[in-house]
Amino acid sequence: MITDARALQEDYIPHDLRHREGQIDALASSLKPIARGLSGEDVFIFGPSGSGKTTLAKYVADQLEQETLTLRRGYVNCISDPTPTAVLSTLVRDANLGARRPDGTPRSYYLDLLREADDQILAIIDECNVLDDFSLL
């Protein structure tokens, strides 16, 4: 029985992830350098559908955001539009680095915004298996 209907909302992140301490610690240690202004490691989380991959990533990102003032997080679900330019556009918008631009805006525009950002960018790219072009990763 569901005791908290918010859990059914797409953007819901629980306050605590029980029995996931090992996974939380592994992901957090890969991203820990970000809190010191350094680059974190690239992390690929995989597993069966519904196993909590996205929730884990968002949970750790939230924890990391509380530790540092120089972090922007962007979330993209590639199912909505699997083109690299659309992914970059959504990432830039979600990280509050710029507004959505008209179709036809070159990929380089979004890459420049990401490169020029003063803050660290933590990108959560969900459902990347549907991307048209994997070179973006």
Please name the defining characteristics of this protein.
137 residues, alpha+beta, two-stranded parallel ribbon
Structural write-up:
By secondary structure, the protein is α+β, with helices and mostly antiparallel strands. Helices cover 34% and strands 10% of the residues. It has four helices and two strands. The chain has helices at 21-31, 53-67, 84-94, 107-116; strands spanning 71-77, 120-126. A two-stranded parallel sheet has the order 1-2. Helix 1 (21-31) packs across helix 2 and helix 3 (84-94) packs parallel to helix 4 (107-116). The protein is globular and about 45 Å long. The model has no long low-confidence stretch (mean pLDDT 84).
Counted by DSSP, the helix tally is 4
How do the strands of the widest beta sheet line up side by side? 1-2
Q: Classify the helix fraction into a percent range.
A: 25-40%
Along the chain, the helix and strand elements come as HHEHHE
- The end-to-end distance, rounded to whole angstroms, is 38 Å
Computed over alpha carbons, the radius of gyration is: 16 Å
How many beta-strand runs? Answer: 2
Average pLDDT confidence is 84
Quick structural gist:
The protein has 137 residues and is an alpha+beta fold. It has helices at 21-31, 53-67, 84-94, 107-116, and strands at residues 71-77, 120-126.
Outline the fold blueprint:
Layout (H helix, E strand, L loop, with lengths): L20 H11 L21 H15 L3 E7 L6 H11 L12 H10 L3 E7 L11
Parallel strand pairs: 1-2
Helix pairs in contact: 1-2, 3-4
